[in-house]
Amino acid sequence: MARLATISFFVLISFATAAWSVDMPSRKPGLWEISMSFGDGNVPGQVMRQCVDAATDQMMQARGGPNGQRDCPKRDVQKSGDSVTIDSTCVIAGKSQSTHAVITGSFDSAYTMTLTSQGGSTPVMTMKAKWLSQCTGDQRPGDMIMANGMKFNILDAQKRGIPPGVQTPPH
């Protein structure tokens, strides 16, 4: 069950990143704590810490690089004050999913994203992120540290050709 929750978490992180990747401001470099909760209760909430710099954050926002436009061809982004609303249609694992995302807050200190999905296994996800500090000496940009201590680097996974959403072995 824990492995399923971890895999689900990374799939949803990838999907959420794809949904918000258009015209989003960069997050402040450093260590971010991200907690996710799922409205249906079938997947336990997850907490992770993520070390980012400008290049890593940009890469994660562009998640999938040339596949981003192919996977999510329909995106409508509306900005108003400190709120961004994104409606998108993506194809994830061969299934079409429509999402409505609302992001509020500051990418310098804390933000909340609520993602409502139709066609996916998790209809509502809330992600709360807060900036904690500079990354510590044993962390490097791209490191994702799960609450259970599992740590991997998303840049290393990308170099090995491991697609987002697939669990990688811990360091």
The biggest beta sheet reads: 9 strands, antiparallel
- In total, how many beta strands? 9
State the order of secondary-structure elements, H for helix, E for strand.
HEEHHEEEEEEEH
Principal-axes shape call: globular
Q: How are the strands of the largest sheet arranged?
A: 3-4-5-6-7-1-2-8-9
Arithmetic mean of pLDDT: 75
**Approximate helicity band:** 10-25%
Could you say how many structural domains there are in total? 1
Tally of separate helices: 4
Tell me the distance between the termini: 21 Å
State the assembly state of the protein chains: single chain
Radius of gyration: 15 Å
Strand content: 35-45%
Topology:
Blueprint: H1 2-20, E1 30-38, E2 46-52, H2 54-61, H3 67-71, E3 74-80, E4 83-92, E5 95-106, E6 110-118, E7 124-133, E8 143-146, E9 151-153, H4 154-159
Antiparallel strand pairs: 1-2, 1-7, 2-8, 3-4, 4-5, 5-6, 6-7, 8-9
Structure characteristics:
171 residues, alpha+beta, 4 helices, disordered N terminus
Describe, in plain words, how this protein is organized in 3D.
The protein has helices at residues 2-20, 54-61, 67-71, 154-159; strands spanning 30-38, 46-52, 74-80, 83-92, 95-106, 110-118, 124-133, 143-146, 151-153. It has one domain (2-154). With 171 residues, it is an alpha+beta fold. A nine-stranded antiparallel sheet has the order 3-4-5-6-7-1-2-8-9. Strand 8 and strand 9 (151-153) form a beta hairpin. The protein is 22% helix and 42% strand. Residues 1-15, 17-21 and 163-171 have low confidence and may be disordered. It has four helices and nine strands, in the order H-E-E-H-H-E-E-E-E-E-E-E-H.
